[in-house]
Amino acid sequence: SQTIHQWPATLVQPVGSPLSLECTVEGTSNPNLYWYRQAAGRGLQLLFYSVGIGQISSEVPQNLSASRPQDRQFILSSKKLLLSDSGFYLCAWSLGTSGTRRSDTQYFGPGTRLTVL
Amino acid sequence: GDSVTQMEGPVTLSEEAFLTINCTYTATGYPSLFWYVQYPGEGLQLLLKATKADDKGSNKGFEATYRKETTSFHLEKGSVQVSDSAVYFCALSPLANQAGTALIFGKGTTLSVSS
Asked: Which chain A residue shows the shortest CA-CA distance from B34?
């Protein structure tokens, strides 16, 4: 079966510091990978997605970036955090069979709670 | 554009009460529809899904029917438990699903069940 891991689970960082959040998926190959942010009291916002190694698409211009150095690893980064970057960051995966119903369903990791002070 | 509208919460029920959380959507064609549940401090878990009209998704006593004529996907459970307390999200995946298409989520409905 497939599992998805995220770490760290909780992070408190000062404004202006760098960020690195990691997500890994086990039990599947060539998944589609996603980063979402869930701000307090708001819905989920897609930040980035990736359909393969080195292929990153950004949905929202901001001071965050993403990378996919390996097939099942997805990293969210920032060089300088802002207060507005606080939130709950969720990684998700779906089957890498684009354009079919099988790739519809996204499965989420446990999330990382980021607080920027 | 495509969108999902959920009833606003919080929804407060006593144990063994009947639950309905309303969800309606706007989309072109026949999107897939989902319900996700988020327990405090955790990520989202897929609760159930339906991919075509009149499909009924069900899991753990929850069910929802894809109603094309009313563009709805209401979540129901006959007898809720305290352990069902969580935030419930309705979501859709657009018809022209290409790799990387975001799920479109409602804002979530908080359910609180007391014993």
From this structure: A105
Nearest residue of chain B to residue A10 (CA atoms): B41
Residues of A in contact with B46 (CB under 8 A): 105, 107
User: Sorting pLDDT into bands at 50, 70 and 90, what band is B50?
Assistant: very high
Return the minimum-mean-pLDDT range out of A1-5, A37-41, A104-108, B108-112.
Answer: A37-41
Task: Kindly list the residues from chain B whose CB atom is less than 8 angstroms away from the CB atom of residue A34.
Answer: 100, 102
pLDDT tens track for A74-88: 999 999 999 999 999
Mutation target vs A (from B88, B101, B109; most A CBs, 10 A cutoff) = B101
Residue B41: C-alpha distances to residues A80, A112, B107, B114, B115 (Å)? 26, 9, 17, 19, 22
Q: Is the peptide bond before A31 cis (omega within 30 degrees of 0)?
A: no
Mean pLDDT within A27-54: 88
Q: Span B58-70, mean pLDDT? A: 96
Q: Amino acid letter at B95?
A: L
- pLDDT at residue A65, rounded to an integer: 95
Q: Report residue B65 CA to chain centroid gap.
A: 10
Closest of B115, B113, B20, B111 to residue B72, by C-alpha: B20
Residue B32 forms contact with A (CB below 8 Å): yes
- Chain A contact present for B60, CB below 8 A: no
The dihedral formed by the CA atoms of A77, A5, A55 and B101, expressed in degrees to the nearest 10:
-100
